């Protein structure tokens, strides 16, 4: 039960979770019961009914250690365990409102193949409707990548002032530099020494 409560807390908090296929199948029915209690709290006519469903749903979550500072040191205050509280608030707020008109089937299981090492079959379990949120987040990340930290600021400033952007200088290889130097430098001709005997003069002397 402690394992299922921990997995259910992570699933509601992050809306997706990678675990083994057997654990995902057990978690599906466990988490869907908690979501059903959240839906009942929305439809409850009196506040006492909503509070009763909230207390029942609290048994499906673990207190957890999200944002918890490790204990240690002299008179160091311990951080509150808020993972289960945050998951419970999200369940009765966003998640319950999302599945208010859905009769069942709040989760989806996708098999990911075997795990290296022990060969266990892995699966991804997620709440239905999470894939649309992931697409929007990826689009925002792409927009941030286009405008870099330093170069993005420079481009924005140049566009505002109307200054044309400088083109990057292309570095040429060492081979191109050496070939240019050879073409630029004139080739030195061999200097002839005065008085040195030539081949024709040598032949004349031998014939004489």
What are the SSEs and their pairings?
Layout: H1 2-14, E1 16-20, H2 21-43, H3 47-57, H4 83-98, E2 107-114, E3 121-127, H5 130-146, H6 151-161, H7 174-184, H8 199-207
Antiparallel strand pairs: 1-3, 2-3
Helix pairs in contact: 1-2, 1-4, 2-3, 2-4
Keywords:
208 residues; elongated; 3 strands; 50s Ribosomal Protein L17, Chain: A; mainly alpha; 8 helices; 53% helix; 3-stranded antiparallel β-sheet
Explain this structure.
There is one protein chain. The protein is built from 8 helices and 3 strands, in the order αβαααββαααα. It has 208 residues and is mainly α. The protein has a domain of 129 residues: Ribosomal protein L17 (50s Ribosomal Protein L17, Chain: A, Alpha-Beta Complex). A 3-stranded antiparallel β-sheet has the order 1-3-2. Helix 1 crosses helix 4 and helix 2 packs across helix 4. The chain is elongated, with a radius of gyration of 38 Å. About 2% of the residues have low confidence.
Helix residue percentage = 40-55%
Widest sheet, order of strands:
1-3-2
How many separate helices? 8
Broad shape? elongated
Cα end-to-end separation? 122 Å
Main sheet: strands, sense, barrel: 3 strands, antiparallel
> What is the CATH superfamily classification of the domain at 2-67 and 81-143?
Ribosomal protein L17
Taken in chain order, the helices and strands follow as HEHHHEEHHHH
Residue fraction in strands = 5-15%
| CATH class division of the domain at 2-67 and 81-143 | Alpha Beta
Q: Flag low-confidence runs.
A: 162-166
Number of strands: 3
Q: Indicate the radius of gyration in whole angstroms.
A: 38 Å
Q: Just name the CATH architecture of the domain at 2-67 and 81-143.
A: Alpha-Beta Complex
- Estimate the mean pLDDT confidence: 75
Q: Please identify the structural class as seen in this structure.
A: mainly alpha
CATH topology of the domain at 2-67 and 81-143: 50s Ribosomal Protein L17, Chain: A
